[in-house]
Amino acid sequence: MSIYNDYVQEVVEREGQGLHPKPIDGAELLSEVIAQIKDLNNENRAESLRLFIYNTLPGTTPAAGVKAQFLKEIVLGESVVAEITPDFAFELLSHMKGGPSITVLLDLALGADLAIAKQAAEVLKTQVFLYDADTARLKEAFEQGNEVAKDILESYAKAEFFTKLPEVAEEIQVITFIAGEGDISTDLLSPGNQAHSRSDRELHGKCMITPEAQQQIVELQAQHPGKSVMLIAEKGTMGVGSSRMSGVNNVALWTGKQASPYVPFVNIAPIVGGTNGISPIFLTTVDVTGGIGIDLKNWVKKVDENGNVIRNEKNEPILEEAYSVATGTVLTINTKTKKLYNGEQELIDISKALTPQKMEFIKAGGSYAIVFGKKIQTFAAAALGIQAPTVFAPSKEITIEGQGLTAVEKIFNKNAVGVTPGKVLHAGSDVRVKVNIVGSQDTTGLMTAQELEAMAATVIAPTVDGAYQSGCHTASVWDKKAQANIPKLMKFMNDFGLITARDPQGVYHSMTDVIHKVLNDITIDEWAIIIGGDSHTRMSKGVAFGADSGTVALALATGEASMPIPESVKVTFKGSMKEHMDFRDVVHATQAQMLQQFAGENVFQGRIIEVHIGTLLADQAFTFTDWTAEMKAKASICISQDNTLIESLEIAKNRIQIMIDKGMENKNNVLQGLIDKANKRIEEIKSGAKPALTPDTNAKYYAEVVIDLDIIEEPMIADPDVNNADVSKRYTHDTIRDLSYYGGNKKVDLGFVGSCMVHKDDLKIVSKMLKNIEQQKGVVTFEAPLVVAAPTYNIIDELKAEGDWEFLQKYSGFEFSDALPKSSARTEYENIMYLERPGCNLCMGNQEKAAKGDTVMATSTRLFQGRVVEDRDGKKGESLLASTPVVVLSAILGRIPNIEEYKAAVEGINLTKFAPIPTK
Predict the structure, then answer these.
(1) Residue 1 has pLDDT above 60, yes or no
(2) For 628-656, b where at least 16 C-beta lie within 10 A, e where not — what string?
(3) Which CATH architecture group holds 568-708?
């Protein structure tokens, strides 16, 4: 049977699911399609023409290479297709976004036929996804006197690829759709349990919100032709949680506009809003697609006649509606006045959503085109020996005389690209920065690969110090979906230049280590900038930003990222921890005390948390920086002492060496290069030539928070508060309660120790607690299942060497086997301890899940509805978050313990401790 017939069979199967044919990305299939086009009598010719023109993926996919060559044949008259004239062939080439299409256009533009060359040149002038090999050809032809090459370069220098685009409409009419009340996580827009389908955009689009919501959107569009549907988080923030391009893709698929008539299911320009704005990482992804994200502020704090905030019996601010955005409301975005209107009534200033830079993204159809456009303009001007004219909005450069720099301002200044020489920049400045470390994870990695193909990138930028492709999000179950997707992903990324968790040739053992933990190890400089394809890319060295798959692709391809320098909030500590407390309790208390100090305002949201926590090693400090994603911070920076940083770097070196020993080094010797850089950094610190990063004493912060350790008396639990009468208060990370709140009798159905929030000491705590319980009671029994998943294999190796793993094995009823990985997800749990494969496990929610309606106590960070546990009829699933000892004891008792039971269980155990740096 031919590949085409196999494809047709798949088409029939997809029709049964209400889906269109899957876009073609393979060279062999498209070659057969072309053969059928050339055969005028072929019964499949008409459908083959449709597939070739409208259903083939562009960029650097294997199919794109075949398509570009066939279009070249048509332009040159070597093949004649009545339905595809040479002019139409050029139009198709213009929509292919780089890679093979640029090669073909350059062949034609620099060829002997002048008429064809000029036509190819006109198409090239609209293209921006050119790489070094492409620009080198142009420059060489220009230097040899080629007039067409000169003409192209002059157009690039003027940035006509941008200036000749249609202007953004002055008025954009929208029709509102309330997607939910309260914070809307990207899990609602792109559920984690549907991660396997993200690269199949049409199929994945069917999981957004609910089928009923999708139908409502379609009905709104039918009732209001010409208006864009704006998805809104009423009384909440839009897009909290994971950094999912798939979430924005889904919103665009249902509410945006098609990017190209010749590329299926790639939509752009979604419009989203939130009472409390848009999550920073989600907003970046909206920018990628040329969309608009609006901070609606349609609910405000009620004040009395003296301007004081009025509070309810829970001491929470009472909100009142400033204006309505109820579903079906017609609003107007005015891009000139930068205001939002309801008819003639002005509602709110939205200038932050329509900055000059964001207006460029909207005009160009996304931020990538601007990033690449600026580079191509700079190249062309240099090649011509002229000064590039000012076309793009100048980057905002803010310098405040006499004001020092925060830690993040120092890092951005060190890594800034293309700023005014000698200028010191403060928060609010727009900056292009060099990216040092990049991470791609496995459920978004397939989309990152697609983005790289779409932007015609074939090799990692040489300026990136190191990049890693993980296997952690699909670690729990080696099912058919993982078997189909993961090896293909690992091969692509390995070829691209990343260190990969799985060797495509099967030479080294599959490493399913949690991506953030590996990135934390391979970050060997606290001055580094890290971009990672997960919201929890928050390192305890350097400053790390969780990002969508597209921003990750851009960082891999260009070695750069663009963003404003964020404001910072300084967090310091006073007092001392109680002996029975764990550092996770300090993390939760930070959220609670901050909200209390600022009358309910989350001053962390959208800002950098600069945490002065320098007495903790990188592994332990990571627990704090990791949680900052749930605090809605843009990122975090750990201020460390010299000796602590040196010790953390030594640990990182050893773990990188383990990766080398396992055969994970690549041809560029990236891992050895990281060790060499770590050695250099250690020597700089020891010699005093460059001490550990600290902010200036006269730096300015948005706010300063002081956490009092003395008042943390009991373990602290983050509660999703699933039955709160105010729906907007559910599933946030702001409800922090102490242990005694539950009275020692709240039933727990499952305990989970795992995810990126735990480190080696957490696993040692599990071991020691079980020994404690056995000594106290003579036997350890579990009234609820306890799932334990170490974040990394090196932690397991270290536990084995230190004698702890054997105690975990003694008490476990199940231990993972890499030789025989699970082929299907667990659906039922016994009351035993499960030692699961390193990786995300229950925290991801795409493979393993708790039973519907369960109450889960977890060390995870995810308490979103449906993530770790789904609802069942009559009972909401709830995922409470706590320290390791609380989770373990809850599983043993089958309920949340009281404080006396807790203290007895942790007696004599050295929990993770922290002591503030003494003030001078």
Answers:
(1) no
(2) bbbbbbbbbbbbbbeebbbebbebbbebb
(3) 3-Layer(aba) Sandwich (3.40)
